[in-house]
Amino acid sequence: MNQAVENFRSRDYWIVENAQYAAVSFRLRKCGRIVNEMAGDRDCTLLDVGCGPAALRSVLRPNVAYHGIDIAIHDPAPYLQEIDIANDPIDFSGKHFDFVVAMGLFEYMGQQQDRKFDEIRAIMKNDGKFIMSYINFGHFRRLVWPNYNNVKSIAEMAEHLKKVFHVERYFPVSHHWRQKQPGKRSLQGLQMKVNFNIPIFTPAMAVEYFFVCSAKK
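^ thats the sequence. predicted structure below, dont judge the formating
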């Protein structure tokens, strides 16, 4: 299933593509809920790698200080930096973070994947958490978008993560008979709280997965 080639879209492509993600998706709302629960009331910092229009910021509690990096920033702000993530080191002015998140990023990292994991580990605090999403390419109606250059099974991705991180858990972002996020509010409300795997059903119907990782001691 592996497909890892050096084929990265330019800023000109992503400045147009990112505009489609200004609204907060189900995936981002669920990610925000997980971060908020883990952060509790303590003041902490978060770096959103591949932040796009920084929509995640709107669903985080005020005690979570948001920072984002992306190859194409539409609206410059002090908490955003424009970085070619595939080709330049992941960094934000030398800061270290309590949380690093990467939503819908690693399907595009090709042969840079493992190097990017190392860079993320380097900017995490020792007790920090890394949360990433990854498409379930084992979905029974699997679709592989031509722009994806890093196609792995969920088990393969877990093994790669374990080289750098302690994988605390991984579970479906959502289930759907088609490979898309749930649209109906009733389905969203139900699946927002499903942070566990359902035998047989999840491998075939999960749209994508969250991985929650910590630094290896």
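The chain has a mean pLDDT of 92.
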